[in-house]
Amino acid sequence: MCRSIKTLRPPVMPEEATEADIRAAALQYVRKVSGFRAPAAHNREVFDEAVDTIAEATATLLAGLEVRGQSARAAS
């Protein structure tokens, strides 16, 4: 149904996660949790809102993580 979601934080990822990386992970998560690869028209809005919310939360998480005493963004 969907690929595995990749770890997006340094040093696992050689460079900082891009907005596209974060959005792809959020989409994979929503697909997995909902059980739908693509939602029906009547579910499209809530599906897209979930992807946006999860992408935003993921970006916040990655920005705030500290890896070995450094912020995740400074470590990349």
Describe this structure in words.
The protein is mainly alpha-helical. It has one domain (19-75). It contains three helices and two strands. It has helices spanning 19-34, 44-64, 72-75; strands spanning 66-67, 70-71. Strands 1-2 form a two-stranded antiparallel sheet. A hairpin with a 2-residue loop joins strand 1 (66-67) and strand 2 (70-71). It is elongated and about 45 Å long. The model has no long low-confidence stretch (mean pLDDT 85).
Separation of termini?
32 Å
Look at the structure and give the mean pLDDT: 85
Poorly predicted ranges (pLDDT <50, ≥5 residues)?
A: none
| Outline type | elongated
Proportion of strand residues: 5-15%
Number of helices: 3
Q: Can you summarize the main beta sheet?
A: 2 strands, antiparallel
Range of helix content: 40-55%
Spatial strand sequence of the major β-sheet: 1-2
Radius of gyration: 14 Å
Number of domains: 1
Secondary structure tally: strands: 2
Q: Which series of helices and strands comes N to C? A: HHEEH
Structural class of the secondary elements? mainly alpha
SSE diagram, text form:
Blueprint: H1 19-34, H2 44-64, E1 66-67, E2 70-71, H3 72-75
Antiparallel strand pairs: 1-2
Helix pairs in contact: 1-2
Question: Which descriptors would you attach to this protein?
Answer:
3 helices, mainly alpha, two-stranded antiparallel sheet, elongated, 76 residues
Brief write-up:
The chain has helices spanning 19-34, 44-64, 72-75, and strands at residues 66-67, 70-71. It is mainly α. This is DUF2277 domain-containing protein.
